[in-house]
Amino acid sequence: MVRLGVDLGGTKIEIAALGAGGAVVYRTRIGTPAGDYAATVAAVALLVDAAERELGESGSVGIATPGARSLSTGRIKNANSTCLNGQALKEDLEALLKREIRIENDANCLALSEASDGAARGERVVFGAILGTGVGGGIVIDGRVLTGANAIAGEWGHNALPLPASSDLPLPPCYCGKHGCIETYLSGPALAADHRRAGGDPIAAEEIAKRAQANDPRAAAALRRYEERLARSLASIVNILDPDVIVLGGGLSAIGSLYGNVPRLWRRHVFSDEVRTRLVPPMHGDSSGVRGAARLWE
Question: For the chain, which domains are there?
Fold first, then answer.
């Protein structure tokens, strides 16, 4: 039976099917119906139906979500796609698809994918960090996702930014109701907002990275601030979890300078005489989450 994975993101929904040996035998993506829960659920069901008709067989379904399923209510919590919060996503999709499905946080799916056959293959402790529309984290130990007692293992994005400096003030408000969350500094929209506050053009994070590479002074300064904040934030992960590998995911994982500059900067914050933790890009790119979702049935 084919394994279907769905990555339910803030801006796009992707579906992929894994065949024998983990090869992708089908893949497509559509835009996410912004702020519309019913339309989002219907879109996922339609994608699954289209994939199965194309493949000529039904499959298991795993879903990567930008949040977590509450252990007490079974409903989605902590999603930056806020229309999902409080919704019985698993049950609603099972009713439409007429089968059991499995749901996991998107960062957990990233970590699972990269630990299985990606950039962290063969490593014991893997931390997956999503840097995209939001900031999430997931942990895989010995090939298994760590969910945690509260289903929030790895959720570093809503910790406070460590050691805020004057350049980090005032603390930005977060959708979660707090101020100064790591997500308000390290998401794509946060990088764009920081660039604007410093007098830069109103451009997206990807364009900031391109201009920084072309030596645009405002963009380069914004990216330096971003790298330093990322180093402080990931150093806390290293100090607590001490992972073998940290794999970045999300749109900002494509910024090549992060992989050299951030480990150089985090050394001053890690409580060790040396730092062997590797910071790596995802081998499977922005499709790593959907591959991890498909692997939830392994």
Answer: 2-108+287-297 (3.30.420.40), 122-281 (3.30.420.40)
